[in-house]
Amino acid sequence: MRLTGVGRRYGLGGPWILRDVGLDIPEGSLLRVEGANGSGKSTLLRLLAGIDAPSTGRITGRPRTAYVPERFPAALPMTAGAYLTRLGRIHGLSRAAASRGALEWLERFGAAAYAGTPLSELSKGTSQKVAVAQGLMGTPGLLVLDEAWTGLERRSRALLDDEVRARVAAGARVVFVDHDPGRLAGEADAVLRVEGGGVLPLPAPSRNRGQAPGPPRRAERARPSVIVAEPPPGAVLPPDLPGTPEAEPAGDGAVRLTVAAPHSDALLRALLTAHPPWHIRSLTPAEAADPDAVSEASHP
């Protein structure tokens, strides 16, 4: 995905919010966007998501995209479940898979009881869970998150963290803004600084002191990986998975898959693109994985 000479202003005579932006966003990249309030961060995210069109320049190679806005349109005249089902259909799921996915995502975020509640009657926190859930349905190649963690409780924030890691490892692009400087610290491939109408790509800080700058997430792939995945109701492990992983029960119906690191991305992609897709609870290097514990974020 590439931005070439992209600029955006509102109205023919309005001031330029962004101008002459050039970016390359490769597959499997995690990008953090930073900048002062009013600098144009949300404008950049809306351009990336295709919500706004450039006033000048062009954006090419945009994959199927999911967008979680800073403000969720809670006044839409439908229930939480109906809204998620409709968004699932837009993401390319069948009607049955979209309906099933809506209920599954609400359950994962602890909001299953609100499936039949009108959006206008949801609390801010529950509305935010619905907003995040619609972005995670299906397998978008680009996930754009504009302060998506704001309003979520600790467990739901951790769940979203894990989903971001899994999507990036499976080859998706994820671009996010968050007010917490520690959000996914050391895991982004680059930081995009929005300032003075421009976007300056900066190297992401290293995970550990003394470590050379670069994407530590990819360095970790040199080690064996453990993926904890939850099957859809009634599903069995697909045959001929990449890397021929070792499979064992992980509790609560989940499966723990240990695979050589070079095959972990392909394995994640196979699970996420299965019909219906599997839910990825966690991805860790084998040495760091605790066989007797699953992260708090994985429990519904």
From TrEMBL:
Cite the PROSITE patterns for this sequence: ABC_TRANSPORTER_2 (PS50893)
- InterPro entries assigned: ABC_transporter-like_ATP-bd, ABC_Transporter_VariousFunc, P-loop_NTPase
Keyword Transport in the entry? The reply is: yes
Query: Which residue stretches belong to region Disordered?
Result: 198-251
Keywords associated with the record: ATP-binding, Nucleotide-binding, Transport
Comp. bias (Pro residues): 230-242
A single Pfam family, by name?
Answer: ABC_tran
Q: Where is the ABC transporter domain?
A: 1-221
Q: Which GO terms describe its molecular function?
A: ATP binding
Which protein is depicted?
A: ABC transporter ATP-binding protein
Species this chain originates from:
Streptomyces hiroshimensis
